[in-house]
Structures are given as C-alpha cells and as structure tokens.
Amino acid sequence: MKKSILLLALSSGMLSAVAQTPDWIRVWKSNAGFAEKQKAFEEYWGTRNPLHSKGSGIKQYKRWEWFTQNRLAEDGSYVKPEVLLNALAAHRGMPQSKSINSVWKNIGPLTAPSGVSNTKGIGRINAVAFHPTDSNTIYAAAPSGGLWISHNGGQNWESNFDFLNSIGTSDIVINPLNPQTIYVASGDRDAGDSYSMGVLRSTDGGTTWNPTGLSFGQFSGSTVTRLLMNPQDTSMLYAATTSGISKSTDAGATWTPLLNVSVEDMEFVPGHYHKLYAVTDNDIRFSSDAGASWTIINNGFPTVTGRMKLAVTPADSMYAYVVMANGSSYGATIRTTDQGQSWTQMHNFPNLLGYDADGLDNGGQAWYDLDIAVSNTDPNFLIVGGINIWRSTNGGSTFQIIGHWTGAAATPYVHADIHHLAFHPITNRMWTGCDGGVFEYRPETQIWLLYSNDMAVTQFYRLSTSNLNPNLVVSGAQDNGSKVMRPTGWMHGTGGDGMEAMTHPTDADILYTTYQFGSLNRSDDGGFSFVNLGSPVTGPWVTPYTLVPQSPDLMYGGFDKVYQSADGGFAWTEVSPVFEASADINCISVCDNSMSVVYASSPRRVYISEDFGNNWTNITAGLPVTSPGSAVRVSYIAVDDWNPKIVYVTLSGYSAANKVFKSENGGQTWQNITLNLPNVSVNCIETERSAENGLFIGTDLGVYFTDKTMSQWEVYGDSLPNVSVTELEIAPAFARLRASTYGRGIWEIPVQNTIINTDPYIGLEPGEAAGISVNLFPNPASESVTLYSDQLLPATEISIYGIDGKKVYTQKVSNIKNHTLDVSGWRAGLYTVEILSGKHKTSKKLVVK
What domains appear along the chain, each with residue ranges and CATH number? Predict the structure, then answer.
C-alpha cells in the first residue's frame, strides 16, 4: 500500500510539495536563540552567494538580523520581558524637557507618495479585519506601527496604539455581537520587527487597550500567529502561537494551553465552532472537541515541511483549502470536501508564489509572504497570495494572476509580498494586507485600490534633511523604496528597500539614496530621477555613507573597509584596513568644520583618521564593546559641529550602564555620559550647533536630550509614538530636529538653542558673527580662477588642498576684494580652497578641468 501511494505521488507531481524548507529558515522561524539562528544562516550560505538568490529569504533575514542584533541582552540572549518593562517604566518616570513648543509632529508620508504607479506603497500591513455590520469600518494591523481603524471604507485612517508597551500587531478579531470589543495579536508574526506582548483587548472600539491573560511575560519570545473567536460564544477565544495553541473561555482573562507545537494558522469549521483545523510546518491537524484533542489528518498525503496557510468558507462548511510551500517556493494547493477526512491536490503548476506573471519562475518566499482565502458565497472561488495574487474560479484546478508586484503583462498592480487575504463579509470584495499597505480589488475596473490616507506606518532606516530647503527630506524605507519630501509633498524616489540617504549641503538638486547592501543612487534634479552608481563591493544590510560638508564631492562609504570617493560617488578607492575580520563597517562620521578627520566603526571597533583616510588609529580602548561574548555594539558615531576632536559614540543592546560615551581628545580617552538613561538600545545621536553643545539621542522608546548645563538626560518633546527612532538630523538653518522611525514615518520638532546659520560650513565658533563670503569664478576652471568678495578682506591667508589632503598652494594677501590664481598647470580634479581672514574662515570647492 505504501508503495502505491508513493507511485501515485510521483505520477501526479505531489512530491513537489514535500521539498524541505532550508534548515536555516526552520531554525530562524523557531524559538532558537539569536546566535543559533545566525550560525544556521552562515553555515547554509557559507558556500553560496546569497545576493544572487532572489526570493531565497536573504532580504528578510538580514532585516531581522539588523534589527535584532542591536537589541540583545549583554550576554547575547534575547532580552527578558521584565527588562523591557522596567525600561519603559523608567522612561515614563524621566524628566520632561521644558522646551517651548516641544511637540512632535508627523510629517509623513501620510499617504502613498506620488511617482511611478507600479511602486505605490505606504508600509507593511500584516492583517485586515472588518466590522460585522458596518461595511465602512475596517481595521489594519501594522508590524511596528500599531492598529489602524477606518470608518469610511479605507479613505482615512486613525490609530490609538502609539503609547502601548509595544505597538506591533499581527492579527485582529472583532466581537460580532459587540463590535466595540476588539482583540489584537501584538508583535510581528512575519518578520520579527516588534516584540509580542501576547493578546490585547479593547472594549471601547480601539480607543484604549489592556493586556489579557495571554501576556508578554507569560509567553516571552513567542509570537501570536492567529486569533479566533467563537461567534456563538464570544467569551471563547483561541490563540495560535509559535509555542502552541491556547484557549480562553472567559474573554481572555485566563488561557489554557491545548497544543505545544508551533502553529502557523488555524480556522474554525464554519457553523461548527467546536471543530478546528490547524497547520504546523509539518502537518495538518483537526479537533472535533473544541481543541481538547488533536488528530493529524494528512491522510496519506506526503508529509510537508514548508509553510502552510488555511482557508474555509461559510458557503460550504465541508470545504477547506491549504496552500503549501515547497521550501520557499510553491508546493501545491490542496482541498478537502469532507472536513479533512481526505485531501485532494488541486494544483501545483505554475508557481503561484514567485515573481513572474506567468508563474514559470521557481522563486518565492513563502515563509514570509503567504496566504489563501475563499469567497463567502462560492466555495470554488479562491485567491492565493505570495509575491503576487492569483485567482481560481474552479476550486483551484486552474489559476489566473490578478495582481502583480510591477504590473507586468498588463496585470493590475498590487504591491509585492502578500501577508493577508480576505473577502469582506458584507460586500464579498477581495482585500489584502501587503508590504505596501491595504488594497481592495475592484472587479468592475479590474484594479487594486490602495487605501493609505493618514496611515503613517512606513518603516524608515535613515533620513537626510536639507539645510537649503526646509521642505526637502530624503529617506530610505523598508519594502517601499526611498522617498523624497519636497514643498509639493512626498514623492517616490527609488524602489526596492531604501537605506542610507544624503542631501548635498550646497546644491539642493543633488540627492543620494541607497539599496540594501550599499548600491548607491544619485539624483541631479532634486529627486525626480535617479541614476544607479552601484557600489565598489557588497556592503552590510544598511551600508553607511557620508558626505564631507566642506567638500561634498568627497564621500566615504562603509563596506568591509572604508572606501572613499572624490567625485560624488562615481568612483571609489579603499582607504582603510579591515577593522574586524567578521564584521563590516557600520558607522562613519565627519565634522562639519574639518575636511581631514574621519571616524568609522565596525560593531566592536572604533577608528579615527586625521588625514583623509590615509592612516587610521584604533581608539576603541575605553569603550565596553570588546569583551568576549558581549553583545554590546557600536550603533552610531557623531562628531561635534565645531571641534573634530569631540566625538560621541552610542551603544546598542541592554547593558544598563553603557549607552553613550564622549571623547574630547579624538578618542584617546572616553567619558561615560549614560547618566540616567533607561536600559534601552540607543540607535543614533545628533549634535546641536549651540553654545550649550546640545545632544539628542534616538532610542526604541523615544528621543532624549542633554547639554553641558545639565546633569541628566530628559525626554525631548511630547506625542512621539513608542517606536524605534532610527536616525536624527537637525537642519541648522531652520532649527528643526527630524527623526526617522521604524514603523511610524518621519517626525519633526523645533529645537530651541541651535545657532541658525544658512552657511553652516564656514567654521564659526559659538557666538561669532556670520563669516566672510567668498566666491570663485569661473568654476570649473582650466586657465585661471578668481576669488572675489563683496567686502574688503584684511590680512588673509589662502590655502588650497588636493583631494588627498595635501596643500598645493598657499598665499598671504592683505586688503583685497579679489585674487586671481593661475591653475593652467594643475592636475584636473577636485580641490578645496580655504580662506582665513582674521577669526573667520570659509572654504569652497574648486574643480580644475
């Protein structure tokens, strides 16, 4: 009998559904420790090239690794729930800054930015739910941006989730008898972008929230994957988690474990709420006694080891569908018409989970994006989502693509990576939550409509705010490319995953964005178009870049070593040694007032170069990042605006006494200025150009401020959500501090002490008047160049430096308004002209042709 089953499987292609998920993915999706997951990944990919493996899961793993490695306990373990709760309590007890108008304002994007139609998106949505009687009330769960509610069919959204302990969400249940009662699965089911606190409940329509008995501390390290409520007895709830299934019979007050294996999905048999299906990574299970016991119901079907998702329909309670992964790609769609007593494979080709509109590729990332749904009125009408969306009208025998991630082959556009599919219980229209937001399918026009107004859920890695235009910001976002804010609003810049971003200090038309692993893009028209410049080598997930403000064609990038470009990013040369054999460069910083000094770090090493990167000195001694086994890492470097010897380093992780360090001598010695900060990961730091030397730091709990007149840190501003702040930047000309967040968009707040200066790179000391103004003409020059000023310059020294930092010209002059130099014999390239007149100094870039 076993032999005949095997032959049948071979003849029908059913073995395609049993290919094993790679070990590293299984370990990663388990409750294993961080080091174990990292080891499994490195062992699998040690002899392979992950960057050439589209759909392999590399992107999602690297995102998770980037986020998680900076949020570990000091010994490398996952941080314990009580540590997080204590940090939150400490944060709420911190003194509040008394700055005037200290209220944070979200500046967007508040809707999907304009741009190419096949790139529209606002941010990832894990789940969509519907009010049982009001077709206009819709709910959406964001992985690190909270629960959102629309009362007008998705036209506008609002959230009251911003100040909970963790604002990530993965699933939603609405009480059909009392829709004011809502349950939410906290945390991020599909990528681990936020911690889970278990199940939360609101009894006032989402205005306020409270924990249930299935709490964060009770299930530390677990994630809730699915929530169910018995519609006939709404006090009965089921929660599928990565630790098993739990049940409550008292509206969530207490929970009883029912099954102790990781469960991916779970559904009732419609109309028979004592019967449930559940799927793990290995089998399909069935309970006919309200979860008290479970039976494996593979019924001769080959055992699977890929991810599976379930769908049922009220149109026929005998029907259920399962979409199965084959590793990361498509395995099969199977169906039962007898409540699981037997299963039939309906489909296994073409590939429903890959990239291509014809399904002929073998790609997919089913462990991350996978779902299936069946119509409420027709048991043979179903949709399957992976990267794209496919529809079947004959019970899964054949499928047609109805949504493609680029709109290829005249297919309607829907953003890539489908996390949830649902048919509206009243309208029966198809809805999806995906990496781009909430979409609804309109069959009359055959298009997917994106509903994103006011839904600020973008996960930003980095931002750059212009000092030339108060309304110019460029920023890099997970899943939704790089965005550009202009006076007319937000627009799409570049696609893919956006990372590092830069604005040119003297030319508002020059902007830079990056993709993951460091590929650099440049715009010379203010962000309306970009050219990809590539990268010298492969970099880390978020590859650091920086411009030298006094000579902005001089750039540095962090890869396995520090690289330098002298021509605005077109050509690169390595200029540093390897800092750590097993780690890339993760931070680079320069001083606004110095061209030659550069700081750079890997996670456990900090170096300085004082000669344009030609020589490097290890200045790690005194920083608590080198202890064997310690998970404390350098997370950011900032240099004082005036003095290149003053430098600050922030540390990630949960080492209570080690958050922020300062050096006043270029790293020869370090001072711990952690002071009263709560034990939370510090992600970034920004220096304020002020007489008081103000400092701002961004953490997972908010933004803190201190200066040289203070003996402690204070919470800076009100109304910033409880979300990870990934980067801070001040535009000195406009006295605004801007923050990129990983889940709630970009925020800004006034800063009170910044010395406002529209030319921030002239080397003024605090309290000095604005400096001298000098221009060069012609520039570029080939024969001669004239330096001219609108004021008479007293004793003045002119110095010119090549791109290598070596002085090529010096001249002292007195009482002049202009001075002409012969450059006819000079080598073509970029030079920096420094003019020192009295106490004032300015610099200009000069291009010799």
Answer: 2-68 (no CATH), 462-750 (2.130.10.10), 774-848 (2.60.40.3080)
